[in-house]
Specification:
Oligomer: single chain
CATH class of the largest domain: Mainly Beta
Largest sheet: 6 strands, antiparallel, barrel
Shape: rod-shaped
CATH architecture of the largest domain: Beta Barrel
CATH topology of the largest domain: Elongation Factor Tu (Ef-tu), domain 3
Number of strands: 24
Radius of gyration: 49 Å
Number of domains: 3
CATH superfamily of the largest domain: Efflux pump adaptor protein, beta barrel domain
Strand content: 35-45%
Amino acid sequence: MTLASLFLGALLLQQRGMSVQVMPVLRSNLLQSVVATGRLNAPARIELAAEVTATVLSVHVREGDQVKFGQLLVRLSDAEARAALQQAKAALAEARNRATQQATLTAPVTVQTVLQADAAWRNAENEFRRSESLVARGFFSQQKLDEARRALDSAASALQSARLQAEANQPRGVESGLAAVRVEQAAAAVQMAEARLARLAITSPVDGMVLVRNVEPGTLAQPGRVLLALAAGSTRIDAGIDEKHLHMLVLGMAARAAADAYPAQPFDAQLSYIGPAVDLQRGTVEVRLAVPQPPAFLKPDMTVSVALIGENRPNALVLPAAAVREADSASSWVLVLRDHRAVRVPVKLGLRGIGTVEIVSGLAEGDLAIPQTEKALPGDSVRQAAGSLQEKGMEVPTFISR
């Protein structure tokens, strides 16, 4: 048999083989990421309501406004409360003046009163002694002595009363204590009036943004009725990740996010929380991502797409997932076109994504894999179909897991 005959026979055998599409093993830089859809949120939503029933005088913010801690948001009718505060301040001023008067005037006067009463008592005592001597010698009647005794007793009583008054008005005395208590009571009344007035001026308890405004000037505010709702704290993204990707999640993991309303303006995020449990109904794990520098266009409750950036493999061998058989088992294999036959080749897989897998071992760059959609079996005689992926070339996507 001549060489030409052998070549012709091989050519005929090749033409008789099954025509199959093939997928080449290529090299590519792989960046695996986990993609999820979430919502923009704020750590706290604060609802503000009036503590008393009053007419709304003015509203100083609208939806979307940024507010600072202590900023005035709503003012309620406060004429009566202001009058009550003025009255309380006047009472406090009076109490303080009376306390000053007691310390600087009444107390010294009582001391002088004691001195005067003491002098009067000494005079009365001397008069009693003289009367007693004169009565004993017969110069005065007994009535004169009785009058002197009554005068002495009266002077002694006045002296005792003056001493008690002086003691009460000393710095640690009863009158001083009462004056101090009156000042404290008046000061407390001022504080109460100020508190009542403050309840009529609703201010922001935090730095945040106004989400809802349910009030207009002239309306009647009532306790329990929400007037404003604020979003407080740093911006974050709440999302659910399929539990099968839990092994890929690491706190601090970098991410790229984009609001569905602004898909061309992505921004950075960072994984800050991984839920402790799996949602039984949806099979997902709750995650939260911090947004260090949120763009100005972001608004609470926006729908956001997030790509958590995982492992990076430079110059890896890549094959479409459709060419891998038993990919979920420990004995994955690929049907490869070699020497016009379909050959079963065991492979070890690495990173996996939607539609693409990494080949760690078993195949080399340029090997031609037969996808599962073809009917060829191991050992079959096969030939590459015209127009297969090998001839067209193949674009290898970044790994994306959902």
